[in-house]
Queue: 2 jobs
Job 1
Amino acid sequence: MKRCALAMHCTPYARSSISSYSWPIKYGARIHYSLRFDKKSLDEYKPLPCPSIDGCRFRAAGSYNGLVCLVEDIDRDGYNCILWNPVINKVIRLPQPSSRFSIAIITVFGFDSKTNDYKVLRFAQADPCIEVEVYSLNANCWTSISTPIAPKYGLFPSYICRYGKCFVNGAIHLLAYDRNGPRSRNLVLAFDVSEQVFTEIPLPECLSYDDLIDAEVLKYGQSSIATVTRKWGHFSLWAMEEYAVATTWTEVWWVMAAEGTVSRVLFVRRDEQVFVPLEGGRIASFDIKTKYLDHIFGVESIGSLEDCLAVDSYVESLVLLDKCCNGRWDVIPIDQDYANSTHEFTFNFFNLKYWG
């Protein structure tokens, strides 16, 4: 079994199209899937077919134990979510959630170790209302979560469509703010996938009441979290050295924007190495200690889709192999020829092997 990391990027292309406005050319993006080894050169392991279902434009919502969760909610005119195992090339389409909200949606993926079940959290907000639902792969259904804590919190608008929602220690983590009281307090909202309850994790004091216009939360190491912020020309990464202990937040990286063109951190590869996107759509590996920036060959994105970039850990597995199209699960066949054909959106993931 290979332990890996997962990523996604977009490349531009143009194709002819017909519309009511008679524009001759429609510019879109091709998002390629591939597997890459976790070596210095990040060589490609193998290309992957792109799941294309009814023209859906998927983005990554999470990855765990060889299973990738893809969701289409960018245009807000529908909601489609699938679970995909790239190794066995099998896809299951999730049933429609019952939530009536179709705006300000966060979809995140996790694993319930107590019941050996894969779950999807859907957090939908339309101020002042909040609706929370959880999908169970074993039960193949959505369940509404009635909890008094969720309505207290709001999610940052710029954070909605990004991948920076991490699953660690059995919990899904979201960057949120407390909507109660005279002054909103920023925090990390942790959702325990097994117990299906929310708890608070405080942010560093300097970020608790700051205007977090551009921020996200990521997995740090094997069992903790980090938060990344970008504001007023500087960029910082704070790591929680001991999980859920507020006093252990430590600033491990601070850089002026002028020192580089880094806009986000996509993934903390090791304690002192991160994946970052650069201006122009390229993705690079950045060593925090040495400040060395190493471009990943053949990987770039168009600017309009940079928020769809994602990198995450990945482990090859046979999950979904026992799921059959017997009326319980909606198993979707992947047409190899169509999956690799030109269409408006495809995806690209890296599969990078940790060698020890």
Note: The first strand starts at residue 3 and ends at 16.
Job 2
Amino acid sequence: MTEKPTETHNIEIAGTGWSIPAEDGVHRRTLVKGMSWTVPIAATALATPAFAASPQPTLKFTQDSYSGTACGTISGAQVKRTVDGTAPDSGKTVKVTLSDGYTFANGSTTYSGTTDANGLITLPDIKVPAKGGNSSFSASSDKLTATAAVSAPKNTKSQQVSNTTAKADGPSDATPLNSGYWLKDGTLYFGTTAVKDSSGTDLKVASTSTGWYATNTTENNYIAVQTTDGKAYQVNSSTAKIAGPDGATPLNSGYWLKDGTLYFGTTAIKDSTGADLKVASTSTGWYATNTTDNNYIAVQTTDGKAYQVNNSTAKIAGPDGATPLNSGYWLKDGTLYFGTTSVTSNVTATSDGWYASNANNNYIAISTASC
């Protein structure tokens, strides 16, 4: 008997990629009336589409970064909001904030606009500050936020009037301080000589003032020091003596700061009402030869008042809210003042300020930027 040739056929399960081989092209199980035929669970699982995350709105600047030049203008910056990362989201309010001297054409640092049919707001011209420099633009809309970097080359001019350079030899690799002092490995040196306390032990230094020069003794070079055990020393050349409250921060010209109170030596400085000055910030302190009380410091109090202190006497001497500098100078909103008199504007940086005993006594070095 001749065998019938065998042909193999596949029965496909639509939409799954699965098939069942059958020799006769019609599988036997399909011929049984009333018999159910189930597809394996694994196969149905493959046929189920994955859960898709709902679209999320987006907010971003149309450029990742912007650049300009000092005193120049950045034009055409835009922010785009979308419904889902692609489709524009029109009619939504977007607020943009600038900082670090960058402003819109009207001088404001904020701008709000409503997105157009393309989901965009176009910002007004942005003015680059005279000083240049780096910053970032910030945008917000509802709970969405975005930023973009901005850069401009720095543009400053350095100005200094009168300069005398004093040089002292110190230990190699030491940190230089004013008036001939050096700091190395926690030890204070005057020149190459380690400064010692009254017991003959090297002073172990936690912090120092910047150092200053005075003309009231034959040994003119001073610095204030807080030691690692919290003692407050004033050093005159190689001689150290305790001169301020324990735990106080050393300043120049005999001043110390502790817990927001300014001291001259161990005496708390008081205002005209007899209350202790509550200090927010100070200058470094300076020495002058124009009065019998030679030691000065400038102070901004916690209520924003600008005091100049001469030994133990405090008087208001500058604009409210100004940053205190030495030698009668104050800085407020980029304007330099001598007392309450405006000297120059567009100031970007200053030195501490200093006093010299010549015809014009009060000096400071500044950097300015102007268009």
Note: The CA atoms of residues 78 and 122 lie 4 Å apart.
